# Entry
Amino acid sequence: MWMTELPPFVPFYVGALLALLTRGRVRGLVMVAIPILGAAHLWMTPEAVYWQLQFFDYELMPYRVDKLSLMFGYVFHIAAFISIVYALHVRDTVQQVAGMLYAGSALGAVFAGDLLTLFVFWEMLATSSVFLIWARRTDRSYLSGLRYLIIQVLSGVILLVGSLMYLEETNSLVFGDIGLQGVHGWLIFLAFGIKCAFPALHNWLTDAYPEATPTGTVFLSAFTTKVAVYALARGYAGTELLVYIGAVMTCFPIFFAVIANDLRRVLAYSMINQLGFMVCGIGIGTALAINGAVSHAFNDIIFKGLLVMSMGSVLHMTGKIKGSELGGLYKTMPKTTLLCLVGAASISAFPLFSGFVSKSMVMAAALENDYHWIWLMLLFASAGVFHHAGIKIPFFAFFARDSGIRTSDPPLNMLLAMAIAAILCMTIGIYPQVLYQLLPDQTDYNPYDATHVLTQTQLLFFSALAFVFLNLRGLYPPELKSVNLDVEWFYRRLIPQLAGAFFAAIWRVDSLLRAAFLGRLAWLSSFLTKHHGPGQLISADRPTAGMVAWVMVLLASYLILSFIA
Amino acid sequence: MIAHLPILQVVIPLLAAPLCMVVRIPRLAWTIALLASSGAFAISLLLLQTVLETGTVSYLLGGWPSPWGIEYRIDQLNAYVLLLVTSLGTIVLFSAPTSLGQELPADRHPLFCTAYLLCLAGLLGVTATGDVFNLFVFLELSSLSSYTLIALGSDRRALTAAYRYLIMGTIGATFILIGIGLMYMTTGTLNMYDLAQRLPEMSQPRTLLTAFAFFVTGVCLKLALFPLHQWLPNAYAHAPSVVTAFLAATATKVAIYVLVRFVYSIFGTEFSFSTMPLQTIFLIAALLGIFICSVSAIYQSNVKHIFAYSSVAQIGYMILAFSFGTATGLIAMLLHLFNHALMKGALFLAVGAVIYRVGSSQLQDFSGMGRHMPWTMAAIVAAGLSLIGVPLSVGFVSKWYLVVAALEQDMWPIAVLVLLGSLLAIAYVWRLVEVAYYQQADNAHVDVQEAPISLLIPIWTLVAANVYFGIDTRLTVGVSEMATRALFGAGP
# Structure
C-alpha cells in the first residue's frame, strides 16, 4: 500500500507549506492534525526498508524503519505535537513554518538509511531551526543564531566529508555501525559530537537555546541533540571513548548550571548533563545500556520539554527569565508551578516519575560492566541534576523571595501542552512497561527493586538537605547578574586575537599579490584595447591585398604541411 | 510530383526571382517571394520526412544516368541543412517589408526580393546537388546575389564592404574551382558519389593534395574561418538588417556543409585527417578565432560588429568540433550549425528592430532601450543567453556536445578553453545589456516606441525556437546523429 511508503517527514514538510499558506484557526487545526496523523501512520508501519534508489553507482535508502529509528520516530511525533500545541497562540508564520520543517527534518534524519540522506536532513535541521532563534528578533538572538548556524553547518560539512571518505573506504553509503576506524570514523564522530554537545563542543547549545523564542526553545530542546544521540547509538554503540565523554558531560555542566542566572541557560546546561547519561549508555554498548540510553532520550525529550515549557510560560507571562528577578510566582501561577514540579521530579529521577525508570538502567549497566568510577560520577551527576534542575529552577522561579510580580497562568494551549507532557512523565514512571516494550532490545529489566529505589531516594534527600543547608547558611552561590565564562572564551576571545595577528600578516602578503595581479590585468586590458578596438590592429579594415595575403598563408601552410607529412 | 521534390526545392525560388523583378509592385513582389520561400520550406520538410523514412533520395536531372548527367542526392545531412536554410530564409523574409521600409526606397524592394530569392536558390542548390561543378555554379549564384544584397545597405560604406566581399568571395570561388578542376583532371568525373569511388584508386597524390588544399582554402574563405574572416564584419555591419540576419544564419552554414560533404563523403576521413594536416590547422585557426574574435567583439562600438565578430568566434567552435574528426565532434558541429543559425537569426533581427526605431546600430544609441523596447531587448537577452550557452537554451546543447567531444579525445585543455570562450561571450552580451538596461535613453530617443508587431513575431518565433530546441533535442540531435552515422558508414 502506498501509505506505508510515505516517509514520516513528508507530512511535516507538507504541513510547513500549508502553514505558510493558511492563517488563524485553519492553520492551527492543520498543524495539530499533522503529528497526530503522522503518529497513527507510523504506528501501523512495520519495520522494513521502504524506499531505495540508485544515485550514480550507489544504493540510497532514504526511508528505512527499524526498532531504533521507530523509538525516536514515536517520541519525535509526541514532541512535535506537544510543541505545536504549546505554540498554538503564536501568530508568527516564520516560527510555525520553521517548527514544522524542523520536526520533519528530525524525522527524516532518524529514518535515513544512508549517510547522504542523513547529511541532507542534518543540514535541514540546522537551517530550519535557526529561524526559531532569529524569530526572537533581537540583536543578541541574531548574533547567537549566526554562531549556532555556523557551528551546525560546520558539523554538516564534516559529516559530508566523513561520509565521502567512508564511501571511498567501504564502497557503501549505508548508515550502520561505523566505529572509530580511520579518518572517516573520526570525522563522522566529530560531526555527531558537535550536534550532541560534547564537552568543549557544547557552547552553541548554551549560547543559542536561551536566546530563542519561548516556544522555539521547546522545539529546539526536543530534536537536534536527540538526533545526534540516535546517530551515535546507530554508528558508535559500544565505543568505549563515549563512556568517558558521557561521564564528563554529566558532571561539568553542573557547576555552570549552579551559577547561571538565566533559568533557560540552567536548563540548557542540564540538557548537556542528561545527554551525558545517554552518551555514556551508548558507550557501554550492552543491550541494557543501549536500552537505557534510548529510553532516557525518550523520557528526556518529554520532561525536558516540560521544564522548558514551564520556563517559557514564565518568560511569556512576565517577560523575565533571570533567577535574580523572579520569585514567588506560585501564588499567581499555581498550575504552572505544579506542572514544573512534575518535570523537576522527573528529571531528578524520583521513583514513580519517568526519569527514574530510564536513568537507573544506564547506572545499572555501568555497574554491571565494572565502570565503578564512572558509576560514581553518574551518581554525583544525579545529585547535581536534582540540585540545579529539580530544586533550583522551581525554587528561584516560583518560591524564594517574593519578587512582587503579579501575573496569571499562561494561556490554555500552553497549560494543555504542559499537562500532556506531565501526564506522560507520570504514566511512564508508573507503568515503565509501556516504554520498555518499544525498546530496540528485549528486556526484562525492573527498575522498582529495593536497591534502586533506596539508593535514589537517599541520594535525593541528601541532595535536598545540602541545598537547604547551604541556603540557610547563606553559602549558596547567590543569583547574580553576571557573565560566566565557559570554554567558549577560547574561541570567542583567545583564538580570534591570535588569529587576528596571523591573518593581518596574510592580508599584507595578499594585498601585495593583488596589486601585482591588478597591474598585470590593467596592462592586459590596455594591450587588448590597443589591438582589438574598432579600427585597431585586429579589427582594422584591411585592404583586400592584406586579406589575400592571409589566403596565401593558409594555402601555403596546407600545401607545405601536407607535402612534408 | 513527390519524386521531383529535390529539384523543385531549387527551381521554385529560382523561377520566382525573375517574376519579382517583372511585377515591380513592392507588396506583390514580397508576396511572391514569401510564397516561394514558404514553398521551399514545405518541400524541405517533406524531403526530410522522406529521407528519414526511406533513406537517401537520388534524382537524375533530365533522366540522364548518374555519372554523366547531373544527380541530386538528398541524404540526412542535406535534408537537415535544407530545412535550416529554408526555415530561416522564410522567417527572416517575414520581417523584410517593415524592416527594409527604413533602409531602402520602396521601388527597390522588388530588386531586393529577386536577389534574396536568387541567393536562397543558390544556397539550396549548393546543398541539394550531388555534382561538384553544379555546386560551384550555385555557389557563385548565391555569392553574386549576396554581394548585391549587401550593396543595398543604406550606408555608402555598404558598397566598399560589398566590394571587398566580392573580391574575397571571387578568390574563394576560384580556389574552389581550381580544386574541382584538379579533381576532374585526375578522376575524369564530377559526380560526388563517383568521385568518392575513384579518388582512393588514384596514383597522383601530389595533384590530389593540391586539389584538396585549394578547395579547403576556398571553402574556409567562404565560411569565414579565422584569419580569412576579414570580409565578414563589415559586410554584416553595413548590409540591411534582414540581409545580415539571413546571411549570418545561412550563408556560412552552407559553406560549412560543403566542407563536411567534401571531407567526409568525397575525400574520406582517412585522407583528410591523416594525409592532410586538417586537424592541426583547423584546431589552431579555430582556437585563435574563438579568442581573438570574441575579444574583438567585446571592444566593438557597433552592435552589428559585436555580433559579426561573435559569429566568427562561433564558426570557430564549429570548426573546432569538426577538427576532432570523430563522430561526436561531427554531431557537435552539426548541432551548433543549426543552433547558431537560430541564435544569430534572432539576434540580428532584434538588432534590426532597434535600428528600425532608433536609426543606428551604435552601441551608445541602444542606451535605455531596455525600457523603451522591452520585448525587443528581452529577445536580445534571451538569444544572448543562448549564445553564452545557458542551460535550457540551444547554446547549452551544442556547447555540451562540444565539451563531451573534446573530453572523449582526452583534450581537456580544449574543453576548458571552450568554457573560457563562453565567459568572453558573457562579456560582450553584458555590454549590450548594461547599456540597454542601466543607462537612460539619449535625448533624441526618449520617445522611441516598441518595435512593430510584424518585426516582433519573427524575432520571438526564433527566440522560442532557441528555447524549444534547447529542451526538446529530438529533431536536432536525432538527425545530426543519423547524418553522422551515415557519413562515417559511407566513408571510404
The radius of gyration of chain A is 29 Å. Chain A has a mean pLDDT of 86.
